[in-house]
From TrEMBL:
It comes from Paenibacillus tundrae. InterPro entries: AKR (IPR020471), AKR_Detox_Biosynth (IPR050523), NAD(P)_OxRdtase_dom_sf (IPR036812), NADP_OxRdtase_dom (IPR023210). Keywords: Oxidoreductase. Residues 17-153 form the NADP-dependent oxidoreductase domain. It comes from the Bacteria. The keyword 4Fe-4S does not apply. This is Aryl-alcohol dehydrogenase-like predicted oxidoreductase. Pfam families: Aldo_ket_red.
Length: 154
C-alpha cells in the first residue's frame, strides 16, 4: 500500500514515491512511457514530475496522452525556466517567459491546470518579485494550484 505525505506545509497529499519522466520520449519511447505511467498509477503512485524541456517537450506530450481519462488520479508537476529556444525570451523566470511556457505546457499535457508549477533554476537576470508575482497570478487564475522551486540553493 502506497504511503502518502503532505507536499511541504500544504494540504496536498502526494505519494512517497514519485515518477520522474526525464527519459520519456528519449530513452523510453511513447508506448513504454505510457505503460510506465499506467503501472505507476495502478501501484498508487500519484506524483508525476516532468518539465517543459524534457526530451524537447516530448515528455509532457506523452504524459498528456497517457493521462487521458486518468487526469484526476495524478498530481502533475512541471517546470519552466531552463532554455527552451534561442532568443531574448527563450529562458528564465520573467513574466513573459513563464506565461508563455505555462500555456504551452497546458496544451501538451492536455489539462486546464498544473498541480505543482516549479521554477527549474534560479534566474539572476529577473527580479524575484516579478517571478513570485507571476506565480501568484497563475495560482489566482486557477491554472496552477501550487508553486515550487527546483535546483535552488537553500
Amino acid at each position: 500500500m502506497m504511503e502518502f505525505r503532505h507536499l511541504g506545509n500544504s494540504g496536498l497529499r502526494v505519494s512517497a514515491l514519485g515518477l520522474g519522466t526525464n527519459a520519456f520520449g528519449k530513452r523510453a519511447d511513447e508506448p513504454t512511457s505510457t505503460r510506465i505511467i499506467h503501472a505507476a498509477l495502478d501501484q498508487g503512485i500519484n506524483f508525476i514530475d516532468t518539465a517543459n524541456i524534457y526530451a524537447g517537450t516530448e515528455s509532457e506530450r506523452i504524459i498528456g496522452q497517457a493521462l487521458a481519462g486518468k487526469r484526476e488520479n495524478a498530481v502533475l508537476a512541471t517546470k519552466a525556466g531552463l532554455p527552451r529556444h534561442d532568443g531574448p525570451h527563450g529562458r528564465g523566470s520573467s513574466r513573459y517567459h513563464l506565461q508563455q511556457e505555462l500555456e504551452h505546457s497546458l496544451r501538451r499535457l492536455r489539462t486546464d491546470y498544473i498541480d505543482l508549477y516549479q521554477i527549474h533554476t534560479f534566474d539572476p537576470h529577473t527580479p524575484l518579485d516579478e517571478t513570485l508575482r507571476t506565480l501568484d497570478d497563475m495560482v489566482s487564475s486557477g491554472k496552477v494550484r501550487y508553486i515550487g522551486a527546483s535546483n535552488y540553493a537553500a
